[in-house]
């Protein structure tokens, strides 16, 4: 049986407890044994090197250097990492080790909750197969991203709320390698209920399964 660990905490505005519960249910349905932790100390546990998958849901907050390095080492050795929105992409702002691992960092969501479109860039990728571009109402994440990411979906900023970024095409969903490990990220899912949007739930579930070590 594959083993996963969800670590939730940090800023409560992203419903980390509810997201953890939902994702735990998805993974259990896929046959995973799921461990839930609520402090970053879990990332320092040597036992995480034996996991198949780690899911951080920990917006903002801080992580100790030793915790970040052990997490990075675990993924580099083959453990998968997957997450969404600020729970992964706006966690531990002071840790460049963590940001290098994830492949991106949130910096803004101009206009806050707005309507925007998610465009698939690789519709034939197994994670996205059968899905189509879709409209979404939420925070449109503007991120600083790793050019080595394999981008699966993007969004285009209109410039309505920040004129200087009109026409900017921003990655929304990506996957990447980190050593022997696989990393998956989606910037979608500001609140827990958004994870039940069919397209978001599908790509998140497939992304986690892709990232997980067999």
Automatic annotation (TrEMBL):
Coiled-coil segments on the chain, per record: none
Domain of life: Bacteria
Segments forming domain ThuA-like: 3-211
Stored InterPro entries: Class_I_gatase-like (IPR029062), ThuA-like (IPR029010)
Protein name: ThuA-like domain-containing protein
